[in-house]
Amino acid sequence: MSSHRTDAATSLFVAHRNLLFTVAYEMLGSAADAEDVLQETWLRWSTVDQAEVREPRAYLVRIATRLALNRLRSAQHRREAYVGPWLPEPLLTSPDVADDAELAESISMALMVVLETLGPTERAVFVLREIFGFEFDEIAAAVEKTPATVRQIAHRARQHVEARRPRVSVTADEARAALDAFRIAVETGDVQAMLNVLAPDVVLISDGGGVKQAALRPILGADKVARFISGGIRKTAVDFAIEPAVVNGNPALALHVAGEFDGVLAARVQDGRITGLYIVRNPQKLSWLGEELTLSLH
Fold it and tell me: Where does the chain show beta strands of DSSP type E?
């Protein structure tokens, strides 16, 4: 490939890099896997004759989608054998992302957890259609289905997600206020204050990957969640710290135990109270995040 063609291919790839990463991440729930998809997409894109590509954006998304679908299908068995609940890999985002309600919702931990309940093709169709607004014929080319079939899949996936996603959106300030109240309650050991900010039907999901202590099943109800968190703090018997952070486009908390980064806590908030808590402690999902988070907090 000539240097001119290489420069053109590189410019187009860089221009769409954020889009490609977000598509891959929302399909896979893993930033590390999404980066791998980007690398593979570039390798394939760099061999394409640019003169024959009419719509680079759609072409690049098609490559990334097919690569992500292959990875997602091969990951299904591993996730079925996973120890305890599987949560998406937390994605550190800049504070200004939380002020973009639509973007923050699209990558929120709450929505990512719902997307995990879709099949691979349904997930790809939902992400491309509902989040990025691609036309049915463009999606059909990416998932190798007919436009009519894609339309049916999109309708089914949308119904599935809408039945499970939070119905009331909250601002970043509202979410931050609830998390701040929760953080103070945990730091002071005030169980009643914790109960005050937890919704009665709150659900806690924790992911230790079989390496770190975590609940093997979701915990339901404010009393049980408060006891689980209080008990976990007592068992550590060491210094712990909780720092505000922005993860997956939303206010979150970074957990530190004995001075070491130990996990991320994300939340779903409705009417000023926390209705969902998502705790990721699996070191494999946090190794790269710890360094970035440490830098962002200092």
Answer: 198-207, 219-220, 240-247, 250-257, 260-270, 273-280
Helical H segments across 189-298, by residue range = 191-197, 222-236, 287-297
Cα–Cα distance for residue pair 253/266, rounded to 1 Å: 7
Cα–Cα distance measured from residue 25 to residue 22, given in angstroms and rounded to the nearest whole number: 5
Lookup: tokens for 131: 């989040």
CA-closest candidate to residue 182, choices 55, 274, 110: 274
Inter-residue contact 277 to 204 (CB < 8 Å)? yes
pLDDT (tens digit per residue) in 40-49: 999 999 999 8
Express each pLDDT in 139-174 by its tens digit. 999 999 999 999 999 999 999 999 988 776 788 899
Q: Check if the beta carbon of residue 25 is closer than 8 Å to that of residue 91.
A: yes
